[in-house]
Write a structure and sequence with these properties.
Layout lengths: L8 E6 L4 H11 L10 E6 L5 H13 L5 E7 L2 H5 L4 E4 L11 H22 L5 E4 L4 H15 L7 E3 L2 H15 L6 E2 L2 E3 L7 E3 L4 E2 L2 E2 H5 L2 H17 L1 H9 L5 H16 L5 E6 L3 H6 L6 E10 L2 E4 L7 H20 L5
Parallel strand pairs: 1-2, 1-4, 2-3, 4-5, 5-6
Antiparallel strand pairs: 7-10, 8-9, 10-11, 12-13, 13-14
Helix pairs in contact: 1-10, 4-5, 6-8
Bound molecules: ligand NAX.
Ligand NAX binds next to helix 1.
């Protein structure tokens, strides 16, 4: 494994006292994200009213005596949290309250991600990797990168939104359908927004050298399963978990965030779904305009490098599905246009 870091890696986690935070911190400190040879420093941010809960989490982290955990900083101060950070996991966000319109939710979160984007640009390392988990993740990532750009020190490639949970959910559903191990399913894609409009696309997916779609059935069966079961199941999985657990996904979200960062830093052999900033090249090939943060297939080649997979064939059904999700991203962008 090619490790681009020599010294301890500083990892900022916002919303660290929340339920995803609680699932993330211990696994990162144990070396599950960056490996068992990489020391880490955790820089934990949460709101003033959450500092006491955060203090309790820090006590527990200390009591684990993790050999890789060199230091913990916890704070409600942005500069302290983002100072010299190598990796930022932006988990904390304003949840939707009863009666809140989507535009109000976007505006409330916009303020948080403007402040954090600016702080990252001012205080974090120049090549910092930022993964936005807090919803609406794609648009929050767009706001953060735009705020960082205004401060003048930002590579938009370093601001991602998390769609890996959707990717992992899709992989599990496929593995169940075709009775193959989930780890054998490669080259899956989730296009678009982290929302029920996302398009989970297994047309290129393979398992032990077989095409996944060939194992599902003939063209008619594939289409019926896709339309009537798979897309809905993946798109509504978050709601299904809330209905069953009474709480939103936390352990699986934390796991997905770690998968995303690990692949981004160290590389992966197959497609990684990442929410990334789009450029002009995607309009002609996928109908995706420049200037949004969109779920796309990426190849991570190690040392923190990644490229969007280009020139995949897009059939009519996929074109329509991608367009629906992209349209939603554009309308979110419109709602927060004054913040960009
Ligand atoms: P919790 O409500 O348990 O925790 C959120 C934490 O963030 C709280 O401790 C809160 O005090 C803190 N916080 C709020 N505003 C903050 C700010 N401005 N600065 C620092 N901390 C702040 O939520 P949790 O279940 O942990 O979920 C966190 C976010 O992840 C939510 O926005 C949620 O919707 C989103 N999710 C995103 C997923 C994805 O796939 N992209 C999946 C899981 C999850 O639903």
């Amino acid at each position: 494994m090619n490790n681009p870091y020599k010294k301890p890696v500083r990892i900022t986690i916002t919303g660290a006292a929340g339920q995803i935070g609680y699932q993330l911190l211990f696994r990162i400190a144990a070396g599950e994200m960056l490996g068992s040879n990489q020391p880490v420093i955790l820089q934990l941010l949460d709101l003033p009213q959450a500092q006491n809960a955060l203090k309790g989490v820090v006590m527990e982290l200390n009591d684990c005596a993790f050999p890789l955990l060199q230091k913990i900083i916890y704070t409600d101060n942005l500069e302290t949290a983002f100072k010299d950070s190598d990796i930022c996991l932006l988990v904390g966000a304003r949840p939707r309250s009863a009666g809140m319109e989507r535009s109000d939710l976007l505006a409330a979160n916009g303020k948080i991600f403007i402040a954090q984007g600016e702080a990252i640009a001012k205080y974090a390392k120049e090549n910092v990797k930022v993964l936005v988990v807090g919803n609406p993740a794609n648009t929050n990532a767009l706001i953060a990168l735009s705020a960082a750009k205004k401060v003048g020190r930002t590579n938009p490639k370093n601001y991602h939104a998390m769609l890996r949970l959707d990717h992992n959910r899709a992989a599990f559903q496929l593995s169940q359908k075709i009775s193959r191990p989930v780890g054998s399913i490669k080259n899956l894609i989730v296009w678009g927004n982290h929302s029920p409009t996302m398009y989970a696309d297994y047309r290129f997916a393979e398992t032990f050298g077989d095409k996944v779609s060939d194992l599902i059935g003939n063209a008619e069966e594939i289409h019926a399963w896709n339309e009537n079961y798979f897309l809905n199941k993946v798109g509504q999985r978050g709601a299904e978990i809330i209905a069953a657990r009474g709480l939103s996904s936390a352990a699986s979200a934390a796991n997905a965030a770690m998968n995303h960062i690990r692949d981004w830093v160290y590389g992966a052999e197959d497609f990684c779904t990442m929410g990334v900033f789009t450029d002009n090249s995607l309009q002609a090939m996928y109908g995706i305009p420049a200037g949004i943060v969109c779920g796309l297939p990426c190849i991570c080649s190690g040392n923190g490098n990644f490229e969007i997979v280009k020139n995949l064939e897009i059939d009519e059904f996929s074109k329509q599905k991608i367009a629906i999700s992209v349209q939603e991203l554009l309308s979110e962008k419109q709602m927060i246009s004054d913040m960009l």
